[in-house]
Design goal:
Elements (H helix, E strand, L loop, with lengths): L7 H25 L11 H5 L5 E2 L2 E2 H21 L4 H29 L4 H33 L3
Antiparallel strand pairs: 1-2
Helix pairs in contact: 1-3, 1-5, 3-4, 4-5
């Protein structure tokens, strides 16, 4: 039996940790009011200071940090019990919600603010990767069981 799907929770955890670092940097800059160092794109501070960067007065970077912390927790639980259907489904649904928000975030940057933040775009890409990994892990145990049943094992 292929053990690669058992690695998916560890990949999820690694991507979530990168997301934590990314969103923590933005959350820290928002909390301290400092400028964001933006080497690749010039729009980081424009995006961070726009009216779209807060929901009910709370910086979106705080929500991003909570999102990635929760996803890291889900990944840790999945590493402990990779066959838990409920946890696999939870990771898949949570990642899908993140992708929906990432699509909205990209739309706002591209068409409303007309500026891009490399850290926001990084978060968008990480969220899509998380969804791909969560889907891979969600589907893999079922595919393995079905493959074993077809072979008569």
């Amino acid at each position: 039996m292929d053990q690669k799907p058992k690695l998916a929770p560890y990949y999820l955890l690694a991507v979530a940790l990168i997301g934590i670092a990314d969103s923590f940097y933005l959350a820290h800059a928002s909390y301290t009011g400092s400028s964001i160092s933006c080497a690749l794109l010039e729009g980081c501070n424009t995006v961070a200071r726009s009216s779209f960067s807060r929901i009910f007065g709370t910086p979106l970077s705080y929500f991003g940090l909570i999102y990635y912390l929760y996803m890291a927790g889900l990944a840790a639980f999945l590493a402990y019990d990779p066959d838990s259907r409920g946890q696999r489904l939870g990771a898949l649904v949570y990642a899908a919600i993140g992708v929906i928000f990432s699509i909205y975030s990209f739309y706002v940057q591209a068409f409303l603010i007309k500026a891009f933040c490399i850290y926001c775009l990084t978060s968008d890409v990480l969220t899509v990767i998380l969804l791909g990994l969560a889907y891979w892990h969600f589907r893999s145990p079922r595919a393995m069981r079905e493959g074993l049943q077809e072979r008569g094992q």
